[in-house]
Amino acid sequence: MPAQAPEVRRANFAEVNLGLPERIALLEAERCLLCKDPKCVAGCPVGINIPRFIQLLTEGKLPEAAHCLLNDNPLPAVTGRVCPQETQCELECIRGYKGLPVAIGHLERFLGDWARGHAQRPALEAAPPTGKQVGIVGAGPGGLTAAGELARLGHQVTVFEALHKPGGVLVYGIPEFRLPKQIVREEVARLERAGVKILCNTVIGRTYTLAELRARFDAVFIANGAGLPVFMNIPGENLKGVYSANEYLTRANLMGARRSARAGTPILTGRRVATIGGGNVALDAVRTAKRLGAESATIVYRRTRKEMPARAEEVLHAEEEGIQFEFLAAPVAIQGDARNWVTGLQCVRMELGEPDASGRARPRAIPGSEFLVPCEVVIVAIGTRANPLLAGTCPELKLDSRGGIAVDEQGMTNLPGVFAGGDIVRGAATVILAMGDGKRAARAIHEYLRRPVSPARAPAERITP
Amino acid sequence: MHKIIAKASLSPQIIRLDVAAVRIARIRQPGQFVIVHRGGDAERIPLTIADADAEAGTITLVIQVAGQSTCELAALNPGEAIANIAGPLGHPTELIAAGRALCIGGGVGVAVVHPIAQGLKRRGVTVSSIIGGRTREAIIFEPELRRLGEVIVCTDDGSYGRRGFVTDAARDALAAGGIDIVYAVGPVPMMRAVANLTRPLGVRTIVSLNPIMVDGTGMCGGCRVSVGGQTRFACVDGPEFDGHAVDFEQLMDRLTTYRDFEQRALAACQEGDCKLGRR
Ligand SMILES: Cc1cc2nc3c(=O)[nH]c(=O)nc-3n(C[C@H](O)[C@H](O)[C@H](O)COP(=O)(O)OP(=O)(O)OC[C@H]3O[C@@H](n4cnc5c(N)ncnc54)[C@H](O)[C@@H]3O)c2cc1C
Ligand SMILES: Cc1cc2nc3c(=O)[nH]c(=O)nc-3n(C[C@H](O)[C@H](O)[C@H](O)COP(=O)(O)OP(=O)(O)OC[C@H]3O[C@@H](n4cnc5c(N)ncnc54)[C@H](O)[C@@H]3O)c2cc1C
Ligand code: SF4
Ligand code: SF4
Ligand code: FES
Predict the structure, then answer these.
(1) A377-380 and A272-276: which strand pairing?
(2) Which of A456, B9, B52, B197 has the CA that lies 20 to 30 A from B143?
(3) Nearest residue by C-alpha to atom 1 in ligand 3
(4) Collapsed DSSP state (helix, strand, coil) of residue A136
(5) Per CATH, which fold does B100-208 belong to?
(6) Could you give the residue ranges of the DSSP H alpha helices within A330-421?
(7) Tell me: the pLDDT tens digits for A288-313?
């Protein structure tokens, strides 16, 4: 995959990867063995028919290939960019047993982008209107996928989004240099053309309650994400210069801090920035810090490079961009000056012990090994939990032990007609899993709505922003 | 889009906007706020719903020009619009069911105290208010509050009402006894001073905190405050808390995070650099 040169891109927010030229994409597609029993498909959480779209690609039938792919996955231009392919489809690819697997993600991105650029992007056939109404909470990948599927099945869909822009993590979390926001805008526009209504600035639990949505809609799908930042509870976390990754990235991405002279939202840049964590979120934050001008931007992670949960390509890109890594290091305190500005991150060295429940070696602190990472900004990216705002206003909704929404195999909650999916059900997971949940819920809602008797609905007030 | 229906200047630094927001006007409760995003490159800022007219479908925002964002909002005129308003956010005020309440407001905080006093009065609670400002011109919402009960006005310079801080008047009112609860909203040092007054007297005191917010939905943690030694997110857990448990020093300190940026931005805005400031 051609990419912007590291020394150029670390000073801009333009996309790192430049995409495959058609000629190379076709050559790469040729490498696929078009297996009868394709292991790659088993590796994809939503079972995309990979050999089929690749075959059409090798035959040069781009519109057909795109149609085939879009039929399984409404956002190939997104998943092709952000899926952890190396642990999913590409991990299982038979080609990978000897040499490199087929670059399924790159091909998916190629076709996704091709479809974006071609007006003849095949429209997916839509069913006649059913007269049923579905309300969706959250315009992240889970909610948007469900909206598209339900609209296609002929239902009238309204999506409620708390923020002023739809897209969820795709707009407020993942930076432009990894996922251009134009892709999300196009998808939202496509949904709107298909008749989906998207109401921003509408916080379910506050602007409307879940009970009101249930009264107003024949079914509801909740995909409000896992946006509650977790802090470490170490001394100094409320010093000036300490951010959750969510706050840091929201300021930089959604609010465009420092992107133009007119941006109203400030962000602390810092000469030296330390980011705690080893996932995609931590890498996005630290690479954003670099682009905002940090001289040194460091990842502090308690295990080693091998255990980092981030996409392999992002780790590589980060290294190329000059991100520093403190592996086997765990924060114990954040230090500040007399005026409470961050001056450093106090850490302790770790060593790896026995594997834990997740199969990864459990890190142990080495006594007496404290050391300081000097910095002006600390970004905490150690995970998120279920946001309790919605559930807190709907006590009858059943939750799991972690505060996420509990669902059955169909994705339905304990409340009839109310479905849920994505991060709010799975905990912080992935884009493709949220999309898969959206798709599954759409099908289950479709089944649910086809039952002969719909529950009686109370007349409800018209819902407008 | 939320149209500005009416605009008034309440004091040299404080303006009042009545803005169309049908749903919020209908369901808002005392103590709740909205997140306002003027559009484009603007910041998302929290503003209390100072009043609402459910029939007209408008909410009242009372805005003190503190920096760029508030300056730009204050430059909007009737007929123009605010792109995004989300809410009502935050927990409604904990209103007592009967008895006597003392509402204390300082500066623009008087506008926040007003819906609380309204809510109390509606429940049959006896309300008295102490409101303050630097000078006579800085006193807002006096007639509105007079409709709800006794009002004592304080000015720092003595140009109107009693000379001195609201806390001085509050000390006397508390000494007279019979007050079941205090609601205090204003600058952080004022709220801290009121909490320090009422703590030894054991009078329950509710304060409305104004940390810096971004999303207002519990997603970013930027609004975190320490209450009773625990970290709370003011946008979803508050904005009102038990004043006796709040770490005011930390709040004051965190509010200075962007001071440099703010001062530059405000200066630019006032020089008319900001596109709207000059109208
Ligand atoms: C920085 C970052 C980088 C990531 N990188 C990757 C990656 O490379 N690859 C990958 O596969 N995954 C990645 N992830 C994870 C992935 O983004 C999430 O798993 C996915 O977005 C979850 O989708 P969702 O639809 O469940 O929720 P979200 O994307 O979180 O969307 C939820 C939406 O609901 C809205 N909402 C919340 N509460 C309410 C309410 N009460 N009323 C109305 N609306 C509400 C929110 O504002 C939001 O827009 C990353 C996550 C982050 C934060
Ligand atoms: C729940 C709540 C209700 C509020 N209600 C009102 C109200 O009714 N009327 C009113 O005039 N003000 C209110 N505020 C404060 C108001 O949000 C800030 O004054 C405003 O954001 C300042 O923006 P600025 O760009 O004009 O000023 P800035 O130049 O950004 O800052 C000026 C001052 O405001 C503080 N501030 C900056 N950004 C924010 C922010 N996003 N949130 C909170 N404080 C900030 C700064 O620390 C500084 O002290 C409320 C705040 C909260 C949290
Ligand atoms: S959606 Fe993700 S896992 Fe599935 S085939 Fe595409 S890139 Fe692979
Ligand atoms: S496993 Fe690999 S080679 Fe086989 S069909 Fe899938 S992508 Fe092609
Ligand atoms: S403002 Fe972001 S969590 Fe409260």
Answers:
(1) parallel
(2) B197
(3) A79
(4) strand
(5) Rossmann fold (3.40.50)
(6) 388-392
(7) 999 999 999 999 999 999 999 999 99
The domains spanning A6-117 and A133-227+385-463 adopt the same CATH topology = no
| Token couple for A182 | 């134009």
Domain ranges of chain B: 2-90, 100-208
Asked if B83 and A164 come within 8 Å (Cβ–Cβ), the reply is yes
CB A43 within 8 A of CB A92: yes
A141 contacts chain B (CB < 8 A):
no
What is the value of pTM for the model shown?
0.94
Q: Which residues contact A65 (CB under 8 A, 6 or more apart)?
A: A53, A54, A56, A57, A111
Q: In whole numbers, what is the pLDDT of chain B averaged over residues? A: 93
For B12-52, how does the pLDDT look when each residue is reduced to its tens digit (9 = 90+)? Answer: 889 999 999 999 999 999 999 999 999 999 999 999 999 99
Where does A133-227+385-463 sit in CATH, by number?
Answer: 3.50.50.60
Answer whether CATH 1.10.1060.10 is correct for domain A6-117. yes
Please give the CATH topology (third level) of the domain spanning B2-90. Answer: Elongation Factor Tu (Ef-tu); domain 3 (2.40.30)
Report which of residues B36 and B265 the model is more confident about: B36
CB A282 within 8 Å of CB A299:
yes
A321: which 2 tokens? Answer: 């961009």
**Encoded tokens for B157:** 């310079």
DSSP A97: G
**Sole residue written with tokens 């005026």:** A339
CATH number listed for the domain at residues A231-382? 3.50.50.60
What's chain A's average pLDDT? 93
The pLDDT of residue B279 is 34
Omega before residue A452 within 30° of 0, cis: no
Residues of chain B contacting A169 with CB distance shorter than 8 Å: none
- The domains of chain A are located at 6-117, 133-227+385-463, 231-382
What digits encode the pLDDT tens for the residues A357-389?
Answer: 878 788 999 999 999 999 999 999 999 999 889
- Are B66 and B103 a contacting pair, CB within 8 Å? no
Closest chain B CA to residue A242:
B222
Decide whether any atom of ligand 4 lies within 6 Å of the A104 Cβ. yes
> Residue B175: exposed, middle, or buried by beta-carbon count in 10 A (0-12, 13-18, 19+)?
exposed
> Do B41 and A202 count as a contact with CB atoms less than 8 A apart?
no
Mutate to test the pocket of ligand 3, among A1, A44, A107 (most ligand atoms within 8 A of CB): A44
Whether the per-residue pLDDT at B278 is higher than 50: the answer is: no
Of B99, B97, B79, the residue nearest B20 (C-alpha): B79
Q: Helix (H, G, I), strand (E, B), or coil: what is residue B13?
A: coil
Q: Of ligand 1's atoms, which has the minimum distance to the CA of residue A168?
A: 49
